[in-house]
Amino acid sequence: MERKWWKEGVVYQVYPRSFNDSNGDGIGDLRGITEKLDYLKDLGVDILWLSPVYESPNDDNGYDISNYRAIMDEFGTMEDWETMLEEIHKRDMRLVMDLVVNHTSDEHEWFQEARKSKDNPYRDYYIWRDGKDGAEPNNWVSFFSGSAWDYDEETAQYYLHLFTRKQPDLNWENEQVRKEVFDMMKFWLDKGIDGFRMDVINLISKTPGLPDALVTQAKNLYQWGGEHFVNGPRFMEFMNEMNDEVLQHYDVMTVGETAMVKPEDGVEFTNEEDGVLSMVFQFDHMEIDGLPGSQEGKWSVQPWKLSKMKEIMSDWQHTLNGKGWNSLYLENHDQPRSVSRFGNDKEYHKESAKMLATWYQLMQGTPYIYQGQEIGMTNVKYDSIEDYRDVEIHNWYNEQVTEKGKNKQEIMHSIFVKGRDNARTPMQWSGEKNAGFTPDEPWIKVNPNYTSINVEDQQKDEGSILNYYKELIRLRKNHDVLLYGSYKLLDPEDEQVYAYERELDGEVALIVANFTKEAVEYQVDSSFELKTAQQVIGNYPNEEENGEQLHLKPYEARVYIKT
Ligand code: ISL
Ligand code: CA
Q1: Relative to the alpha carbon of 16, which ligand is closest?
Q2: Which of 103, 125, 192, 346 is buried most deeply by CB count within 10 Å?
Q3: pTM of the predicted structure, to 2 decimals
């Protein structure tokens, strides 16, 4: 396995709108990020990934870009951005920018031109079709509810948008579009950035003719059309072109956000010989508490089993070992908070947050930390739908409650558990007003628990989640076995303890994590020989164990290394 800086580093995702407000307008900004670089350096972070900071009308908080080469006014200026980059590099950290090129904003100049007339030179930058029998060109459902098509009066045609109607899909079949995207990528790379996180990149190629999706949910008007755009026919061709034209000329990392891919796809996309990305974000473990197949499945709240989690994670670990490279994440700006989802955000808040960190960060791959995860920020419950800001949440609520008359409590419950705003509440810096995020009204309400969960308190507390993260990050970097070692799952059927081993050149690490609030006896596979190993980290004080039987406390995690 080739050594790479992006395999050894830890990535921290910043959602700029909610990170730190430097000028008191209630919105996080670039100067706010620069102010916190020492905090991030101290945490041990090597790479920063910024969610989009480009000019945008913010229908989808920056994932709808109206100018790829300009900074959003609310976030600051290009100069602020350049200062931030300089300060990042000064601290030996790197910057990864978000690349959103499946779609633009409808306010992008290209779309403004395109919609003017059928023979406008920009028309073919997007995907336009005539209606079919007085309705949409096909039956695809949008990721964010309703049809994936919108009718444009001006030219009496429909345009495709897999996300909101203000996010028209770019037509990647058009060579000119690809050239524009590649030029824009060079623009940022030449400014000195260190990589891209590529938004829904495996949706860029659509089946020619855009055929109807199979009707899988007859009760619904629109159908999930993934078979016609997930890893579409020309996806690899486009990515190879992007590599030839752009990426191979720079020392960068890339991470593709690729929903609905299997480990075999992960190998194809990330292998060292002819892969097209450094790594991908897979979603199998994020779908464990929903139903597969469509976006609607996400909103269904399902119980999950540890044995299933083992199957998913181990499948990715085994299949990519020695061939590709994994990303390791439990949270991002689209997902609920992991301590609320997989841990215990009540009496075992601290223990379970540390356990989860230990468990996922020591697998093979590059760990990602989402802002606030390092202090165990939790899900939020707003009383009123009005307090939510996310377009996906509002579309879902309107469709289900307003249009279909579904039970309001039930829909609000799904929003509490799965809604994206769980991750978007302001970063909790201190116990001061508005969590120290902003002096005035924040754009979205703070989570009221900021008085007990915040950075300032945790910095002072040696046993805090924050300090544990620091220790864990340092530990991983100091042991090659934790970076490059192989992965072996132990006890696949055990529903309480997730245990696995890493091995490199005879050195073995054992990671044990109790996922329950009960004390559990765990029998270690005797080939590990606990007696000869050393415990290197844990979320309770170290205990001398006799024999191969571990007495695990609620949500306890331990790591042993044997050389
Ligand atoms: O949000 C999701 C689960 O709730 C995902 O299905 C998400 O919509 C999908 O992973 C795509 O996400 C990315 O592209 C979207 C944007 O809204 C997300 O924030 C972004 O991460 C459209 O650009
Ligand atoms: Ca601001």
Answers
A1: 2
A2: 103
A3: 0.98
